[in-house]
Design a protein that fits this description.
- It is built from no helices and eight strands.
- It has 121 residues and is mainly beta.
- It is globular, with a radius of gyration of 15 Å.
- The two termini are 19 Å apart.
- 12% of the residues are buried.
- Strands 3, 6, 7 and 8 form a four-stranded antiparallel sheet that branches. The chain has a two-stranded antiparallel sheet with strand order 1-5.
- The protein has a single domain (2-119), classed as Immunoglobulin-like.
- The chain has strands at 2-7, 16-21, 32-38, 57-62, 67-72, 84-92, 110-111, 115-119.
Length: 121
Amino acid sequence: MVKATIRNVDAGGVAVGFQSHGDNRGPRPMRWRFEVRSSDGAVMPILLDAPNFGGMSSYGLLQHGKTFEITLDMNEFVHRLPAGEYRVVVKYHDSSQISRMTEVEHLIVARSKPVKLVVEK
């Protein structure tokens, strides 16, 4: 499980538009994505077939310094990983369901710093 936090750190102290929930009635929140790369840089396959039942969302302002937190289960986003070392980046898009897209490089997304993951036998 990964606890993800979105924090408004706008340099000018401006509130930003933010949509929360509404993608959380299936096994995973659909506006989130785990990008997992092996030690040789290969991108690990994502799970594309998760159902989405929608849900009520809210759209408002995320005030400067305020946060939104969610707990994510990486097992709901990527296939089981073989033993090895990986680099994991968690991505978020405010309106697109990026968890099931095969390509997201054309989108502007919020992204975490890379985290090292070691999977043992």
